[in-house]
Design brief:
With about 150 residues, the protein is an alpha/beta fold. Helix content is about 35%, strand content about 10%. It has a three-stranded parallel β-sheet. Strands 3-4 form a two-stranded antiparallel ribbon.
């Protein structure tokens, strides 16, 4: 690497993204190392699927006891745990190795627009690489009311 010493520390820093899950933008990327960033996904309850997947998709898990196969349809999962749909989809896209669970721990999925305590950690937004205060206020209606009170 032909970088200054101060810039190499930035390559090792973990960054909070709003949507982007790729860590290949780092100069230290190696598929055998866990050097990824945190990812926050909001509005998981507004997922749209194509075709007849909303009628046909079934999520299965097993309790490891005899007869312990549990099946949940997409519509039920959408009502109860919309965040689990995205987590399951991302889990299927990750490599099936020892780093998979650690990478999934850094995925934070929320059904609504409120990110909770993670909102202060976000440095970049996927669309243009920035995150403005107006965008944060637009995401969280509670903060919108606080901003109007402060403006007055």
């Amino acid at each position: 690497m032909s970088q200054a010493v101060g810039n190499t520390a930035l390559a090792y820093a973990r960054v909070w993204h709003h949507v982007n899950a790729s860590d290949r933008h780092k100069p230290i990327y190696d598929k055998s190392l866990d050097c990824g960033d945190y990812v926050v996904v909001t509005n998981a309850k507004h997922i749209k699927v194509t075709g007849r997947k909303d009628e046909q998709l079934v999520y299965r898990k097993h309790t490891m006891f005899p007869g312990g196969l549990k099946e949940t349809e997409y519509k039920d999962m959408m009502d109860k745990k919309p965040y689990e749909i995205i987590r399951h989809a991302v889990s299927g896209m990750l490599p099936k190795n020892k780093l998979r669970e650690r990478r999934l721990e850094r995925l934070k999925v929320f059904g609504g627009s409120n990110m909770g305590i993670y909102r202060g950690n976000i440095l970049k937004r996927w669309e243009d690489g920035t995150l403005t205060e107006d965008y944060i206020l637009k995401l969280d209606p509670k903060n919108r009311m606080k901003a109007k009170v402060k403006a007055e």
